[in-house]
Specification:
By secondary structure, the chain is an alpha/beta fold. The chain has two domains: 128 residues, D-Maltodextrin-Binding Protein, domain 2; 126 residues, Periplasmic binding protein-like II (D-Maltodextrin-Binding Protein, domain 2, 3-Layer(aba) Sandwich). It has ten helices and eleven strands. Helix 6 links the parallel strand 6 and strand 7. Helix 9 crosses helix 10. The longest helix has 25 residues. The radius of gyration is 22 Å and the shape is globular. The termini are far apart.
């Protein structure tokens, strides 16, 4: 009997650690990815944790591509993305036994921004494309002052960059002289301090330190983004590994609820309804 107890005790201790680990894992949600979706994730997570004291939600940015990569690698429960998943990412995920499921959580508009002293207030898609390709180099070519244009862009891991590349550049390359930034906040900071600069950000990041530019004569309002009238609008996603279960499912449902969509609106993005 003593020998049996000696054998069982370590097994029971190991089992208790496994069970404790499972409980811990069940009460933790890890979210990584898009800096555009980040404000919505942070605000909704804070409210969710307030009403679910036993749940811990860890959130970090890094870009849409990194969020989807983390989902495929199994290092996150939710991958935030400001673009849809690519075919290559789907293939890689399936090879690893992961089946990403998209959950559209908001709509957004990508807004060109300039320094507050810049007199330009409207640009066409064609003008924006030529500016970002480096073919229009002076503001006087688009009705502005005689100043050289400083192009500020997101880096290639950004979903915002990829939507901009598709809808504005039409797959053309950004000028190699562009200043690449890792986040919406970094773009705002760069443009607000440089009267020569132009950048682009998600609607929820717009503030008074920079000036928004209309595109094709259409302002980036919530109504214009939701209707599709604004030409550089896009959905925002949270991706999960397969159909979500447990608290991950509950959290996603919270973001999609009226309360969650009120948070979306409060953060400056466009609610789904």
């Amino acid at each position: 009997m003593k020998k049996m107890l000696k054998f069982l005790l370590p097994c029971l201790m190991c089992l208790s650690f496994v069970c404790a680990g499972s409980v811990f894992a069940a009460d933790t949600i890890v979210i990584k990815g898009s800096t555009t979706v980040l404000p919505v994730a942070q605000a909704s997570a804070e409210m969710y944790m307030n009403s679910h004291p036993g749940v811990n939600i860890s959130i970090s940015g890094g870009g849409s591509g990194n969020g989807i990569k983390a989902l495929v690698d199994g290092t996150t429960d939710i991958g935030n993305s400001s673009r849809f998943i690519k075919d290559g990412e789907v293939k890689l995920a399936q090879e690893k036994g992961v089946y990403p499921v998209p959950h559209r959580v908001a709509m957004d508009a990508i807004i060109p921004i300039v320094h507050t002293d810049n007199p330009v207030s409207n640009l066409t898609i064609e003008q924006l494309s030529l500016i970002y390709q480096g073919k229009i180099k002076n503001w006087k070519e688009v009705g502005g002052n005689d100043l050289q244009i400083v192009v500020v862009s997101r880096d290639t891991s950004s979903g915002t960059y990829e939507v901009w590349e598709e809808k504005v550049l039409h797959k053309a390359k950004v000028t190699p002289r562009a200043q690449l930034q890792a986040s919406n906040g970094a773009v705002i900071q760069a443009v607000s301090k440089n009267k020569y600069a132009i950048g682009y950000i998600g609607l929820g990041y717009l503030n008074k330190s920079v000036k928004a530019i209309a595109v094709n004569g259409v302002e980036a309002t919530m109504a214009n983004a939701l209707s599709g009238k604004y030409p550089v609008s896009r959905p925002l996603f949270m991706f999960t590994k397969g159909w979500p279960e447990g608290i991950v499912s509950d959290y996603i449902n919270f973001v999609l609820s009226k309360t969650g969509q009120d948070i979306v609106k409060k953060e400056g993005y466009v609610p789904l309804y």
